[in-house]
Each structure stands twice: as structure tokens, then as C-alpha cells.
Amino acid sequence: LYSYDATSFQQIPDVVVMPRSEEEVVEAIQFARQYGLSVTPRGAGTGMSGGAIASTGAMIISSEKMNRILRIDVERRVALVEPGVLTGDLQEKVLEKGLFYPPDPSSYLVSTMGGNVAEGAGGLRCAKYGVTKNYVIGLRVATADGKIIGTGTLDSEYHGHIAHGRGVESRAASHNDYFSPDLTPLFVGSEGTLGYITQIMVRLIDPPETARAMVAFFPTASQAAEAVTAILTKPLMPSVLEFLDRMTLTAITAQVSLPVPEHAEAMLLAEVDGNADTVAGDLTSVIDVCQTHGGFGIEEASEPKQRDHLWELRRSVSPSLTTLATGKINEDVCVPRGELIHLVEWCQALSDETGLMIPVYGHAADGNLHVNVMYDADDRSQAKLAYNTVERILQQALDLGGTLSGEHGIGRTKRPYLHLQFSPEALELFRRIKHIWDPNRLFNPDILYPSPEELALAK
Ligand SMILES: Cc1cc2nc3c(=O)[nH]c(=O)nc-3n(C[C@H](O)[C@H](O)[C@H](O)COP(=O)(O)OP(=O)(O)OC[C@H]3O[C@@H](n4cnc5c(N)ncnc54)[C@H](O)[C@@H]3O)c2cc1C
């Protein structure tokens, strides 16, 4: 169970430890050091870049038993959680108190806050509300030398009080978002390579009064992508704007009931939220733009139950793609919004050229598309072709001014390609940051940062 995540990598760890407290995390780290094991922090193992997979001779420290919501402070609008809290559980509990934690990776019902912070997770409504990094304001971290440090609102001055659940940190109270200097951002997206996150403080906001959603189909993928760009140039920001191409629709309809019109080559799913007075008008504007760009079969979903059905459907996409082929490489490239259409068209041409199925879907509003290369896992030459194709996709995203990963992280899957985006000087700086925090490469030694040999090759 602890040997895999949502990638195709697999490695059985030597030891799995499930601490119940910060003190036990420190003990586990000391044990690993004593016995020459490396440490792989692990949340729910839903990662899509292989970060929670053990290296050879590694101890997995699982956060599954550190899953307490330590505090929801309504007055300060913050929550303090242990890393194993499921994101969906936190969202539910803060909503009960009239507050909102927006970051919502499609895996939010099963992935952990620790994993979300370590990957810098994005999600469906992140174009409007921001990603995980915009909400994390303080961390406590167990370091490679077995010490606990606090960052941001949880800086070390307060750690005694917080660890024992006493009092509210008075200085931090007026500094929720403006704590400086602050090491917190260094850990968000560090993929478990710098230390083990033991506590997370996030800021909370007011929930929207109401929301309305719609689904529209398009005769071509390009028209759907054009509609996305046109919607985003309007003075409104949908809370969700998801793009799904024909191949993705074919995979979903094999699993769940979705009436897709015969000539539909793409679908957009949009949600607007906010005040009751403005939401209806905003949805009409979105629908108008879709119609102008050839959208048809448009259906509104204003009832919570109808909307839940749409999001359930959206969350089923990634697993349902596995019905198309036995091999699947899921890349989450990100391009500037205006380039979305070029990426979509280029992927279609690439699919025609290689003969591989390349379904494309994703968070269109922030240019973060999931480009999936499907192949027959038993056919070595097709697998090779698929991996070569991936490199071309990554290069194309960079050529369009984008980035290698919009939310899944670098991990094991994209580490070999890091030099495509970063200069040798930048890579050397990354390596030095890792060296300062973790000179003996205790934490996740085989992910994210290129090795000295790889750096030499990049030069
Ligand atoms: C169906 C599906 C849909 C998904 N949709 C999205 C999406 O919309 N947006 C998105 O961003 N991602 C998405 N993901 C990817 C994944 O869910 C996220 O990356 C998530 O944040 C991983 O959380 P986890 O608890 O599973 O972490 P894991 O997979 O267990 O670990 C991920 C990384 O975090 C590190 N880590 C975990 N806990 C700690 C800790 N306490 N301290 C330090 N490091 C730690 C691990 O070492 C590893 O490098 C999806 C995955 C699936 C399977």
C-alpha cells in the first residue's frame, strides 16, 4: 500500500512509521539517521509526480495519524491543522463555522493538507481564489537535524504555546499575511525535500453567498478554448472554468452518465459565485460568450445537487482515462491564458502525428491543462514513443511561455526535464538551498533537485 502513488513508480519502503505527535516525528527522524535510512514524508499518496514514493533504503513517515484540526479561530479567520487532515474535512469544518478554505484539488476528499502544502496544490476554483500558497501563513517543520522550527505566524517564539494548544499568538494576530522575513514560502511546494511539516496554519475567508454553474458543448476544441479567453477578458472571474476535450468526454461517458451531444468535440464547465444580486447576471454573460463561440447544448445547474453532480463528474476524469489504455502519463503543464488555444491545437496535431491518444482537460482559467499521453504498457516501442512525446509537450509549454508543472510538482516524473526550464545557475542555487537545509540528503533524496551529475549534464 505504501509502495505507490498516482504515478507508475513503485518502491517498497524499508520501514513505515505513523507518528501521532510532533515529538514522535522527531524520534522517527533520529531513528532514520541512526540507521542510515532516508526519509520520505507521505500524506495520502495521491501525488502525481512520485514524491511520496520511497527511495531505496527509506523510511516513510506517514501523516495519517496526525489528522487533528487543532483550532479554528473565527475571530482571526485562521485554522491550525496537523498535516494528515484531509482537505475536504477542513473545508467542511470551517464552513460549519461560516468560513471558507478555497483551495480544492480534485482530490480534496482524499488528499491531505500536508501533501497539498508540499506540492503547492491548485484546484478547480484556484484561478479566482488562488492556490494553496496563497493561504498558508505559518508552518511548523521537523528538520533534518531533528529540530522543530516555526515559520510565519508559527515562528519559534510562539511554538511552546501553540504546541500545547494554549493561547492565541498575539503578535501574529495582526500579521496574518504580512509576516516578514518569512520562510513559509520556501516550504510550500518543496515536496518534502526540506523537512517534515508537522503543523499548518491557513487563513480563511468568507464563503460566497451563492453559486451557479453551467455546462456548454462546442463543435471544436479551438472554439471552446477561444470562449475561455473571451470569458476571461470580461470583467468577471468564474470560480470554476474547466475544459474537457472529446477524448476525455469519451472516457468519462464510459464510466458515468453524461448526455454528450453527437457533434460535441469539447465541453466547458463553468461556475460563478458571489452575491445573489450579481451571480445570475454573471452566468448569463458566460453563457452569451459561449454561444458567440459556437457553444450549444447549454444547461444551467443552479441547485447544489445539480452542481455537485457536475463536480463529481469532473473529479471522475483522471481515473476514467485509464479505460482508454493501460499506460497513462499525466502532465500538468501550464501556459499563459492567451496561449491555451495554441496548446490545445498543438496537442491535437501531435496526437494525429504520433497515433497516440492525447486527451486534454483541466483548469482552463489559469492555463493549467492536464495533457495525458496514453499508450499500451505492454508495448515497449509505444511506451518509448509516449515518453518522447511527453518531452515534446513539456518543451512546447515552455515555448509558449509556460511552465513544466501547474500543480502536480516536479517529483520524480519531471526532474529529468528541469533543465529545460531553468538555467544551470538557477539549478545550482536550488541544489544549494537543499544542501543548507539537508546536507546529508535525508529527506526525499531522489526527487525535485537534480543531482550534481545531472547538473553537470545540464551545463
Ligand atoms: C484523481 C486525482 C485528482 C487530482 N487533482 C489535483 C488537482 O486538481 N490539483 C492538484 O494540485 N493536485 C491534484 N492531484 C494530485 C495530488 O492529489 C496533490 O498533489 C496532493 O496535494 C497530494 O496530497 P497527498 O496527501 O496525497 O500527498 P502525497 O502524495 O502523499 O505526497 C505528496 C508530496 O508531499 C510530500 N509530503 C506529504 N506530507 C508531507 C509532510 N507532512 N511534510 C512534508 N512533505 C510532505 C511527499 O513527500 C510528496 O513529495 C490529484 C490527484 C488525483 C489522484
Write the layout of secondary structure elements.
Layout (H helix, E strand, L loop, with lengths): L14 E3 L4 H13 L3 E5 L15 E5 L6 E5 L4 E4 L5 H10 L16 H7 L6 H4 L6 E7 L5 E5 L6 H5 L6 H4 L10 H4 L8 E8 L6 E9 L2 H12 L7 E6 H8 L12 E9 L1 H17 L3 E6 L2 H12 L1 H4 L6 E5 L8 H15 L5 E4 L4 E8 L4 H20 L18 H4 L2 H14 L14 H7 L1
Parallel strand pairs: 1-3, 2-3
Antiparallel strand pairs: 4-5, 5-8, 6-7, 6-8, 9-11, 9-12, 10-11, 10-14, 13-15, 14-15
Helix pairs in contact: 8-10, 8-13, 13-14, 16-17
Bound molecules: flavin-adenine dinucleotide.
The site of flavin-adenine dinucleotide has 37 residues, from strand 2, helix 3, strand 8 and helix 12.
Could you walk me through the main structural features you see in this protein, from its secondary elements to its overall organization?
The longest helix is centred in the last third of the chain and has 20 residues, at 380-399. Helix 16 (424-437) packs antiparallel against helix 17. The model is unreliable at 159-175 (pLDDT under 50). The strands form 3 sheets. This protein has a 7-stranded antiparallel beta sheet, with helices on both faces. Strands 4-5-8-6-7 form a 5-stranded antiparallel beta sheet. Helix content is 35%, strand content 19%. It is an alpha+beta fold and 459 residues long. The chain has helices spanning 22-34, 87-96, 113-119, 126-129, 159-163, 170-173, 184-187, 221-232, 246-253, 276-292, 304-315, 317-320, 340-354, 380-399, 418-421, 424-437, 452-458; strands at residues 15-17, 38-42, 58-62, 69-73, 78-81, 136-142, 148-152, 196-203, 210-218, 240-245, 266-274, 296-301, 327-331, 360-363, 368-375. Bound molecules: flavin-adenine dinucleotide (FAD). The site of flavin-adenine dinucleotide has 37 residues, from strand 2, helix 3, strand 8 and helix 12.
